[in-house]
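Why do we care about 3D structure at all? Because function follows from shape, and shape follows, mostly, from sequence. That is the central idea of this module. The next example makes it concrete: a single protein chain, its amino acid sequence, and then its structure expressed as tokens.
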Amino acid sequence: MALTVAADEADAASGYTSLGTGLAMLIAPFTLGWLADTYGLASAYGVVTVQIGTAIVVTLLANRTGHTSV
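And the structure:
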């Protein structure tokens, strides 16, 4: 999706997408551990469930509105 939207700067879009993915994979386990220690394991997994649902909705909306034909 990022490469389609930023067709003129595909290299930069690919780099930012990889950077965002890497940072998410680095930060997510520590954040989940902190939430579990602070609020309990069930609450931490509840936050994960909400985040997954939000990601699905954002992805569906982005695919509907951001799709451009090349």
